[in-house]
């Protein structure tokens, strides 16, 4: 099952990238839905499960503090990479495009890690996290292509980075086959990923979905994303 999921993440990233190359005018709706999906997983799945798993050893306040730490850590990594860039004489930021695409690939590796560790908790949790990651990876594929093209890169360069980004979550998933974590520490790991997902949804996907587009339909898509993941999590139990 986990091998199949890892291959699905690869396919979702590639589909997102080629979607970006072909249907640029519909991206804001996809990104709006993606934002709702990853935020829904953070609030309705990762955080409650982290509190439950960490409960025997860690107080709830510690688990929520770790989630906040995850949010801040992801923000620092993201801002650090974005700030250390320059524009060329054409006004294009090739360095930023490469660093942003590389950052997304690292984020995709962490997504794969999240799937593998979630399956260590249970198959139901693993499947819910996998759904959110698949939606997010589709968006990652879109963003990887957009970063390269907006920085003046060629279509061939965008496709090369898309392939790297598509392989990253597969490596992340497969790496978790070689180690196991105690349940209470899995709770802290899930709390960290909760912070990651909250940052991705609130600080990356939502602003990008609203950029240059009316907020009405993107907001509706975000709410739909949250509702869909809430229902899926409740069905999974």
Automatic annotation (TrEMBL):
The membrane topology noted for this protein in its Swiss-Prot or TrEMBL record is: Multi-pass membrane protein
Q: Give a GO cellular-component term.
A: membrane
The primary site where this protein sits is membrane
Enumerate the InterPro entries for this protein.
ZIP (IPR003689)
Bilayer-crossing residues are 30-48, 60-77, 113-138, 159-179, 185-206, 218-236
Task: Write down a Pfam family by its short name.
Answer: Zip
- GO terms assigned for molecular function: metal ion transmembrane transporter activity
Q: Where in the cell is it found?
A: Membrane
| Protein keywords | Membrane, Transmembrane, Transmembrane helix
Write down what this protein is called.
Answer: Permease
Q: Where does this protein come from, organism-wise?
A: Candidatus Yanofskybacteria bacterium RIFCSPLOWO2_01_FULL_49_25
Q: What is the lineage of its organism?
A: Bacteria, Candidatus Yanofskyibacteriota
């Amino acid at each position: 099952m986990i091998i199949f999921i890892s291959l699905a993440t690869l396919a979702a990233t590639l589909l997102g990238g080629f979607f970006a190359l072909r249907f640029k005018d519909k991206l804001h709706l996809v990104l709006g839905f993606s934002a709702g999906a990853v935020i829904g997983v953070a609030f309705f799945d990762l955080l409650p499960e982290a509190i439950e798993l960490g409960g025997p050893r860690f107080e709830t306040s510690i688990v929520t503090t770790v989630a906040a730490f995850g949010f801040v850590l992801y923000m620092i990594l993201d801002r650090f990479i974005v700030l250390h860039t320059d524009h060329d004489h054409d006004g294009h930021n090739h360095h930023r495009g490469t660093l942003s695409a590389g950052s997304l690939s690292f984020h995709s590796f962490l997504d794969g890690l999240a799937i593998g560790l979630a399956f260590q908790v249970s198959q139901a949790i693993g499947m819910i996290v996998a759904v959110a990651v698949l939606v997010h990876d589709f968006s990652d594929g879109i963003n990887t292509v957009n970063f390269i093209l907006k920085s003046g890169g060629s279509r061939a360069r965008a496709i090369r980075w898309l392939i790297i980004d598509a392989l990253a979550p597969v490596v992340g998933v497969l790496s978790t086959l070689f180690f196991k974590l105690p349940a209470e520490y899995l709770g802290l790991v899930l709390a960290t990923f909760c912070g990651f997902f909250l940052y991705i949804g609130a600080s990356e996907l939502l602003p990008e979905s609203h950029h240059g587009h009316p907020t009405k339909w993107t907001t509706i898509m975000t709410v739909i994303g949250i509702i869909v993941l809430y229902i899926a999590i409740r069905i999974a139990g």
